[in-house]
């Protein structure tokens, strides 16, 4: 698995692009500067790895656009040692970003092909999630709750209740909500029963699929 000076140079330019687009969190930029994104894509597509675009991976899914990964991670406000639940493991790239930030990561994927591939791949790069789960993100992962943060990396037609209830008080749920177009939404749990809601503009994700889809 090759990570050359050329790749590193391309990464640095990608980081400059993200800064220009408004990403300011230094730890997030550093994570993107460190992680060899090209290795998370099929080898034929290496040329596309360091442009700010989403790209197809296996099972009709996508690796999210670097700006989106950076923005969602920034909104999550991860501190070292935080327990984070990711919904939609996909290629594992976002998982790697969270691990670079020092988070303890649980991640759920519903496509078995991707789950199996990423579970083998991440440790090869030295990225060790606490647990990768094959299952349905709509129900979260109660066994390890509550979480400091929950990050949904697919477009959710509605906000799944279990995800809200699995947040710690003070914890944040970052979730793109909507059908064709999603609004990036952050819920902060302020008490046992109350949540604050903030919105951060429009995005387009592949859908968060239900059990029978
Ligand atoms: N975080 C991924 C990455 O860095 O490559 C991007 C993932 S892609 C935009 C969204 C992922 O969510 C896909 O891998 C898809 O299979 C997964 N997904 C869709 N519905 C899901 C569900 N109900 N539970 C868990 N994962 C789901």
What does this structure look like?
By secondary structure, the protein is α/β, with parallel strands linked by helices. It has a single domain, classed as Vaccinia Virus protein VP39 (Rossmann fold, 3-Layer(aba) Sandwich), CATH 3.40.50.150. It is 29% helix and 25% strand. The protein has six helices and nine strands. The strands form two sheets. The chain has a seven-stranded mixed sheet. A two-stranded antiparallel ribbon has the order 1-2. A hairpin with a 5-residue loop joins strand 8 (182-189) and strand 9. The longest helix is centred in the first third of the chain and has 16 residues, at 5-20. It is globular and about 50 Å long. The structure holds S-adenosylmethionine.
Strand and helix map with partners:
Layout lengths: L4 H16 L5 H9 L20 E2 L5 E2 L2 H11 L6 E5 L5 H8 L3 E6 L2 H13 L6 E4 L12 E6 L8 H5 L1 E11 L4 E8 L5 E9 L10
Parallel strand pairs: 3-4, 3-6, 4-5, 6-7
Antiparallel strand pairs: 1-2, 7-8, 8-9
Helix pairs in contact: 1-2, 2-4
Bound molecules: S-adenosylmethionine.
Number of domains: 1
| First-residue to last-residue Cα separation | 35 Å
Kindly state the mean pLDDT as a whole number?
Answer: 95
Tell me the name of the CATH class.
Alpha Beta
Give Rg in angstroms: 16 Å
Bound molecules: S-adenosylmethionine
């Amino acid at each position: 698995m090759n990570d050359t000076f050329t790749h590193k140079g391309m990464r640095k330019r990608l980081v400059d692009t993200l800064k220009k687009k408004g990403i300011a969190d230094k730890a997030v930029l550093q994570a993107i500067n460190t992680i060899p994104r090209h290795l998370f894509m099929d080898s034929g597509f290496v040329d596309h790895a360091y442009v700010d675009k989403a790209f197809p991976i296996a099972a009709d899914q996508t690796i999210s656009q670097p700006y989106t990964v950076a923005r969602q991670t920034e909104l999550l406000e991860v501190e070292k040692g935080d327990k984070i639940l990711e919904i939609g493991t996909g290629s594992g790239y976002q998982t790697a970003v969270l691990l670079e930030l020092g988070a303890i990561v649980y991640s759920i994927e519903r496509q078995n092909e991707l789950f199996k591939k990423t579970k083998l791949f991440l440790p090869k790069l030295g990225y060790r999630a606490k647990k990768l789960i094959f299952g349905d993100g709509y129900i979260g992962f109660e066994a390890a709750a509550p979480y400091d943060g929950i990050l949904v990396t697919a477009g959710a037609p509605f906000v799944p209740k279990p995800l809200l209830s699995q947040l710690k008080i003070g914890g944040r749920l970052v979730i793109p909500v909507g059908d064709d177009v999603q609004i990036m939404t952050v819920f902060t749990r302020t008490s046992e029963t109350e949540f604050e809601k903030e919105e951060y503009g429009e995005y387009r994700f592949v859908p968060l699929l239900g059990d029978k889809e």
